[in-house]
Structure prediction request, 193 residues.
Amino acid sequence: MKVYYHLSLEGFTNCYLVVNDDPNVMEALIIDPCTINEQLINQIEGGGYKLTTILVTHNHGNHIRSLSTLSKIYSPAIYASDYEITGSKACVILGDGHLNVAGFDVEYFSVPGHTADSMVYKIGGILFTGDVIACGIIGETSGKYFKQVLAGNIEKKIFSQTDDTVIMPGHGPPSTVGAEKLFNLDIEKKHFA
Prediction:
């Protein structure tokens, strides 16, 4: 497995290309298709990968800006928790579960709070968190109640992962579960010190 990072300057949003370089598979997926650039296309085409899947963390324009264009070029399966994103070509996923896409076992978790449709995807030892959690902060919410809901969901579903699990957020640099337990400013440290 290789993970390639692409930054969209519109919203400073992260897009991830995850490739399965097993010679018997050679498939790829994209998480949060916020940008299409020459480098991304070259990584898919030049690597000989078939883009089979797009995973969407939540329905905010800066995270799905290039979804329709990528869908026209490659015709991948689209997975999201929002019916507005998915349309007729896609699969709506709800709650927690597993997908087998691009030769990967992908675990997904519903982590509402930032948005009602926020999903986190786990591939191997990496969590792709969208705007649920980023380096040192949690996602913006529309009030104290939703901030508590989000913090509780993070504690239950993300902080239950091993400390060395990598967090690849929708904005900003990567982190780890262990670092967020210690240093995240928005989560109470009652259980993790």
In short: DSSP finds six helices and 14 strands in the chain.
